[in-house]
Structure formats: C-alpha cells, structure tokens
Amino acid sequence: MKLNIFIFFSLFVLTGCASQSSPELTNSKMEVTTTETLKYYLYYPENYKSSGDEKFPLLLFLHGGGESGGSLDAVKRNGPPKLLTGGKKFPFLILAPQNPNEKMWWNTRAVNQLLETVIAENKVDPNRIYLTGLSRGGGAAWEMAVQYPDKFAALAVVCGMAPLPYASWINKKLPIWVFHGDQDNSIPISESVNMVAKLREMGYRVQFTIYKGVGHNAWEKAYENETLYDWFMEQEKLN
Predict the structure, then answer these.
(1) What is the CATH number of the domain that holds 74?
(2) Which segment of the chain is annotated as a signal peptide (predicted)?
(3) Residue 184 and residue 190: Cα distance in Å, rounded?
C-alpha cells in the first residue's frame, strides 16, 4: 500500500525601502508543493479484530540508512519487522514506513501525516503511541520527539545522533531509553553520551544502555531485548 503525502509551504521575502544606490529588494510570495510517497508495513496484534472497541498501543519504527529506497522488503532486515518475520508477536500495532530517499534524511512531516492517518483509521490509543528508530532512523526519532512533543508516550533511540539543542525542546514528561555500542565507528557513542548527559542535567527520565565491544549494529541486541517492549507497554502519555 502506498500513501501520497502532500506538503504545502509558503515562502515570504520581507523588505523595507531601498535607496537608489543599493540593490532593490522586492516583496514576493510563492506556494511550493512537494510530494512524498511512503511505502510501509502495518502489523496488527492477534486479538485486534476480536477485541471489539478496545484501543491498542502503536509503535512507530524508523529504520536506518541501509534500508532506505528500493524494495519495501528491506525494512524487514532489522528491528521489530525482522522479529515479526521470525514469528514474534507483539501486543501493539507496529507502523514501519520506508524512507524512499536512499541518500536523504527522513521527511518527518510526511511520516507524521502517515502516522496520523493510521491512527484515525484504526483502533489506536492516542495516549500510547511509542516511537523508536535506529541509526538514521534514530536521528529522525529524536527529531520527531522535538517536532511533535505531545504525541508520544515513550521514545527509544538506538545508535542515533542529534544536535544537543534538541534536549531543550523535548517534552520533559517523555520517558526515554537510549542504546549505543561503544565501538561504533559510524555514529560515535559520544553522540548518545552527550545527549543523555544533557537530558539528565535538565531533569529528564533517561535510561542509557551501552553495549561493550559492539559496533554500529547495536540494534541487534537492543531490539532482541524483551524488556524494551515490556517498558513500552508500561508507558502512557500523561495529559
């Protein structure tokens, strides 16, 4: 299934008066339209159809750069989608979109519109929306926590990276769990160490798991950790 996301921007150039000796600046306005096509997997728990009006939690999973573009099957290489292909069952819905741009960052606005559509069209508890991502998707998860601070009930980031100023914009009520390998040569562990330190300094609830002797593929241990999913299920957004 494909979902077309349309995003509209207005561009303004504001100016005052210019003297004859200076370059002239003119006021202008242009509406720019961009289109993003997101392919995705959506997993339903076993008892979803038989549960009547019961609403379920939903986990949004954002993959890494290696799964971007190409076949949607690539999303199954790592994280919860990989576990699902191995027969694991989860008590919540899992939304796993694919970044269609092999060499570009995630379009988090498009992802949010997809998420909103899935929530509206399914039996989803809006107070139990969980967010996780690995590598490039971990950076996108940090970004989504900043851009949509009131949406998520919990955040788990695996070997991700983000500017330290993000720490000031994340909802202080958001429970956070960070994972990283101490031998990561792609995204240095300092990215997580510094972010966790800044968040803790500001009073956030942050768990930090460091995998000794593990490189960039910290996601293998992180997503095979059953405690992570138990932790997600314990979290509910406080209104």
Answers:
(1) 3.40.50.1820
(2) 1-18
(3) 10
